[in-house]
């Protein structure tokens, strides 16, 4: 089941964080990415439809977490 | 009371959580990240950019967490956002003086000299007589 695309703004999310999160969730869903200007569209196809919403939410949160970690590493701070 | 400014954080609530639109001129991205990081174990969080200078924060409590009203959740987040913004602003305004103190600490006083001084002070303390004159068994043997 292909859900609607999630838009990750380049201003708010790091592309490498998105890659790390997609790798982490590769056992739960398959991913396809596309560009919309500078931003990235991610299409998620979960392997189990019953958990689709939870996986989407958790995936978005994971991307944000990785972005924060990488942002802080880049600015000299460690978590 | 007619001159109260318009609230800069707009909130919407729904069955799937709360959403805020924040002006990133007032709340820097560093502060938004800081607040989001503190909520990441309790909530699902998604950020979007509806327009230039705006950041929309979507919060949804995780199923394994105790339920909380969306209004309370958004209020907690806004308070934390303010706290983080203040931390960022203070960090920026005191950056120069912190750099100055660090530079002075490293340049003015060589580290080895400080360590030697501390060791000498410890040696001196150990060599001092006990003011209370408490008898110690091994001293009796010597006398």
At a glance:
Chain A is an alpha+beta fold and 79 residues long. Chain A has 2 helices and 3 strands. Chain A has helices at 15-24, 52-74, and strands at 6-8, 29-36, 39-46.
Tell the overall outline of chain A: globular
Helix segment tally of chain B: 5
Termini Cα gap of chain B: 87 Å
How far is the N terminus from the C terminus of chain A? 37 Å
How many beta-strand runs of chain A? Answer: 3
Helix percentage range of chain B: 40-55%
String of helices and strands of chain B: EEHEEHHHH
Question: Could you explain how this protein is built, in words?
Answer:
The complex is a heterodimer of chains A (79) and B (143). Helices cover 42% and strands 24% of the residues of chain A. Chain A is built from two helices and three strands. Chain A is an alpha+beta fold. A three-stranded antiparallel beta sheet of chain A has the order 1-3-2. Chain B is an alpha+beta fold. Chain B is 50% helix and 18% strand. A four-stranded antiparallel beta sheet of chain B has the order 1-2-4-3, covered by helices on one side. In chain B, a hairpin with a 5-residue loop joins strand 3 and strand 4 (54-61). The mean pLDDT of chain B is 82. The chains are: A alpha+beta (79), B alpha+beta (143). The interface between A and B is medium-sized, with 19 and 16 residues.
């Amino acid at each position: 089941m292909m859900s609607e695309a999630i838009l990750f703004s380049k201003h708010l999310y790091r592309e490498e964080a998105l890659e790390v999160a997609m790798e982490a969730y590769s056992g739960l869903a398959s991913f396809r990415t596309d560009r919309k200007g500078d931003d990235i569209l991610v299409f998620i196809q979960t392997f189990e439809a019953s958990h689709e919403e939870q996986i989407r939410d958790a995936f978005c949160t994971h991307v944000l977490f990785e972005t924060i970690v990488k942002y802080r590493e880049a600015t000299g701070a460690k978590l | 009371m007619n001159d109260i400014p318009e609230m800069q954080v707009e909130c919407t609530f729904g069955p799937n959580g709360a959403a805020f639109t924040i002006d990133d001129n007032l709340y820097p991205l560093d502060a938004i990240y800081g607040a989001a990081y503190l909520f990441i174990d309790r909530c699902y969080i998604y950020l979007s950019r509806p327009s230039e200078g705006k950041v929309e924060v979507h919060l949804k409590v995780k199923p394994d967490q105790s339920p909380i009203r969306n209004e309370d959740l958004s209020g907690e987040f806004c308070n934390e956002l303010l706290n983080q913004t203040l931390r960022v602003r203070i960090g920026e305004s005191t950056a120069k003086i912190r750099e100055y103190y660090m530079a002075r600490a490293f340049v003015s006083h060589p580290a080895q000299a400080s360590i030697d001084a501390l060791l000498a002070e410890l040696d001196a303390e150990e060599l001092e007589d006990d003011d209370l004159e408490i008898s110690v068994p091994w001293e009796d043997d010597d006398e």
